Amino acid sequence: MTSQPDMADRRQDLLDTIRDTARDAGRDPSDITLVAVSKRQSEARLDAALAAGQRVFGENRVQEAQSHWESRRADHPDLELRLIGPLQTNKAADAVALFDVIETLDRDKLARALRKAMDESGRTPRLYVQVNTGDEPQKAGIAPADLPDFLASIRSDYGFEIEGLMCIPPVEEPAGLHFALLAKLARENDVPRLSMGMSADFETAIRLGATSVRVGTGFFGPRED
Ligand SMILES: *Cc1c(COP(=O)(O)O)cnc(C)c1O
User: Fold this and answer.
1) What is the pLDDT of residue 225?
2) Measured from the CA of 223, which atom of ligand 1 is nearest?
3) In terms of CATH, what superfamily is 4-218?
4) pLDDT tens column, 42-96
5) Is the CB of residue 218 below 6 angstroms from any atom belonging to ligand 1?
6) pTM for the whole thing?
7) Which of 4, 67, 154, 187 has the greatest CB tally within 10 Å of its CB?
8) Does the Cβ of 61 fall within 6 Å of ligand 1?
9) What is the average per-residue pLDDT within 11-21?
10) DSSP one-letter string for 142-175
11) What is the pLDDT of residues 201-218, one digit of tens each?
């Protein structure tokens, strides 16, 4: 089990690296959010992260996120929970009820389900569109070529303001190429924020414009199976 001082030290190291990398790149460090990816981490580690002061967490499954955070939220009303994994339309209402940010909007059917869930609940999580920057057939996300039309239609049909774009680069390619592409797409389509970079490549992502980095193992240590 990881003790609290270890977690606090690791978190501080990450925050220091984020700050230094941002400054080197001529960016304002306060413009970059550290998202601690808590999927498949133990209850003890979640509590240690909270004790260390971490408040922004990423999860990739709705059900696991509910069991991790629903009760902890009562004691920590300042939590910010981000969905970073694929969302099925039949879970849209649960996702809208729990998450503050949904980063994986990638199809019209899901946009429609989210609009309905938001109208019914009165909750309006901030939205990111996931882009399949590598055009990988098995991967979720809108193809780069389809992004302008998709953004135009969800903006007009559902009245969504899209806060950011998100990507998960192909494992076998240099991540920087994909981060640069995502940044270019965001500029061209007037999308202000960029969720990109994980434990192995978050510094590259910051140099290329990331406004949030999703760090799992680098924050918590190895995941449970
Ligand atoms: C698991 C996950 C991460 C964190 O990955 P690490 O390599 O542990 O930092 C980031 N983004 C997404 C979408 C994930 O599923």
Assistant:
1) 74
2) 8
3) Alanine racemase (3.20.20.10)
4) 999 999 999 999 999 999 999 999 999 999 999 999 999 999 999 999 999 999 9
5) yes
6) 0.97
7) 154
8) no
9) 98
10) B-GGGHHHHHHHHHHHH-PPEEEEE----TTS-H
11) 999 999 999 999 999 999
